[in-house]
């Protein structure tokens, strides 16, 4: 026999001190909660009498409504238990709710498909992948929004940290994807705002470090011998090009077309990608001597304006038209380049793993070290917030502190 009771969940109190009232069902020692659609202050609820106190202005009306909800719930439970001998607490919950609260996974997967072509391929894949990860952990698709409580999320984070050995950043990202879906459901008036459980969580990020090549290491890389026409040569050239072309991201480098390069001004003019909000921005800047030499090296005699400068993208038409193909090409190319850079890094005996993204860190750190203003570095790198660029300035200060400790007594 299932038991039913009204519970004021004070641990979910909002900033005004109001807590949501829930109908609690206990069946076979398993507990489920259903929102009663009411929020009260702790001093407005009588736990023993199961009633709203008279100090609430609408106590009489609310008590009548709550009494009816409890009566309906008890009636539903009695009917279900009469019909089905071994009914689960989940089924009782569904019967009482009448499916008022939507299924989280049904909504989320439907939402992912709805926005598929309004976000980048990588964003779409992240949404689906991290939702599937949560589904695999929870073990069922039969989960409504109000089933995902603070305690459930804390258990999920413990599992990610303990069993999966996920970093704080990965845990944070995994939970934030779920939070995005809650926010979308709230915007669409599908669930009430007080069902949002994430504001009570503490989501930590790993302290990021910015590894970069110093001047000597850059010189060693430039001098590093590679076979002409090899994939290793291409990886090396793409990396060096980024260092001497404002720290361009990988996708922006391989997508450079001849119409983006203005030889008479030694300038690149291109719409670049921004990672913070996935927007694009017009960008133009001068490039260094090494970058110019690399462009000259790959220059084709009969190239059209829309041809790509670097021989990475094989099918221009398909790449420009098909976003799934474009995503696949970038992923494979980036993986291949990083593999070759990793090999180079080992042969140079660098104290870190060499990958393409280090070209951005290398550009920023060396530019600041050479006296370039932080505002200019920020602009070149396409940072929306100069605080992002200030991370590199902090690195220089740390390097200076180390130098003082080592050489000044």
How would you explain this protein's 3D organization?
The protein is mainly alpha-helical and 409 residues long. The protein has three domains: 3-97, no CATH class; 104-200, Orthogonal Bundle (DNA polymerase, domain 1), CATH 1.10.150; 215-407, Orthogonal Bundle (hpI Integrase, Chain A), CATH 1.10.443.10. 50% of the residues lie in helices and 12% in strands. The chain has 15 helices and eight strands. The strands form three sheets. A three-stranded antiparallel β-sheet has the order 1-2-3, with helices on one face. Strands 6-7-8 form a three-stranded antiparallel β-sheet, with no helix packed on it. A two-stranded antiparallel ribbon has the order 4-5. A hairpin with a 4-residue loop joins strand 6 and strand 7 (267-273). The radius of gyration is 29 Å and the shape is elongated. Residues 399-409 have low confidence and may be disordered.
Mean pLDDT: 84
* CATH homologous superfamily title of the largest domain: Intergrase catalytic core
How many separate structural domains? 3
Instruction: Tell me the helix content.
Output: 40-55%
From the coordinates shown, what is the CATH architecture of the largest domain? Orthogonal Bundle
Number of strands: 8
Strand content: 5-15%
Please tally the helical runs, counting DSSP H or I stretches of 4 or more residues: 15
Order of strands, main sheet, comes to: 1-2-3
Structural class: mainly alpha
Unreliable runs: 399-409
CATH topology of the largest domain: hpI Integrase, Chain A
Backbone shape = elongated
Cα separation of the termini: 79 Å
C-alpha Rg (nearest Å) = 29 Å
Biggest sheet layout:
3 strands, antiparallel
What's the CATH first level of the largest domain? Mainly Alpha
Give, in order, the helices and strands: EEEEEHHHHHHHHHEEEHHHHHH
């Amino acid at each position: 026999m299932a038991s039913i009771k009204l519970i004021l969940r004070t641990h979910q109190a909002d900033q005004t001190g109001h807590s949501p009232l829930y109908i609690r069902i206990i069946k076979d020692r398993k507990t489920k909660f259903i929102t009663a659609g009411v929020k009260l202050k702790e001093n407005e609820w009588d736990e023993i009498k199961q009633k709203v106190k008279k100090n609430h202005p609408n106590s009489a009306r609310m008590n009548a409504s709550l009494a009816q909800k409890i009566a309906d719930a008890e009636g539903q439970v009695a009917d279900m238990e009469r019909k089905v001998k071994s009914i689960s607490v989940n089924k009782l919950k569904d019967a009482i709710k009448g499916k008022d609260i939507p299924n989280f996974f049904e909504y989320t997967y439907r939402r992912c498909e709805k926005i598929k072509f309004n976000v980048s391929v990588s964003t779409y894949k992240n949404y689906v992948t991290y939702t599937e990860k949560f589904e695999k952990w929870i073990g069922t698709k039969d989960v409504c929004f109000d089933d995902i409580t603070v305690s459930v999320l804390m258990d999920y984070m413990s599992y990610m940290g303990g069993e999966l050995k996920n970093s704080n950043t990965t845990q944070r990202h995994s939970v934030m994807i779920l939070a995005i879906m809650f926010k979308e459901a709230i915007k669409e008036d599908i669930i009430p705002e007080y069902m949002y459980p994430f504001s009570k969580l503490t989501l930590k990020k790993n302290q990021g470090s910015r590894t970069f090549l110093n001047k000597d290491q850059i010189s060693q890389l430039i001098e590093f011998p590679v076979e002409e026409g090899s994939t290793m040569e291409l990886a090396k050239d793409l990396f060096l090009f980024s260092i001497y072309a404002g720290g361009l991201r990988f996708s922006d480098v391989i997508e450079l077309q001849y119409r983006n390069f203005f030889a008479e001004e030694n300038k690149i003019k291109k719409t670049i990608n921004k990672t913070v909000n996935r927007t694009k921005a017009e960008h133009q800047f001068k490039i260094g001597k090494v970058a110019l030499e690399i462009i000259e090296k790959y220059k084709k005699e009969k190239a059209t304006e829309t041809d790509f400068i670097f021989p990475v993208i094989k099918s221009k038409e398909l790449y420009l038209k098909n976003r799934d193909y474009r995503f696949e090409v970038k992923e494979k190319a980036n993986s291949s380049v990083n593999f070759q850079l990793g090999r180079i890094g080992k042969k140079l005996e660098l104290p870190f793993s060499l990958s393409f993204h280090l070209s951005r860190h290398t550009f920023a750190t060396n530019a600041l070290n050479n006296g370039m203003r932080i505002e200019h570095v920020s602009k070149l790198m396409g940072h929306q917030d100069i605080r992002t660029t200030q991370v590199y300035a902090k690195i220089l200060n740390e390097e200076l502190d180390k130098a003082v400790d080592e050489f000044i007594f």
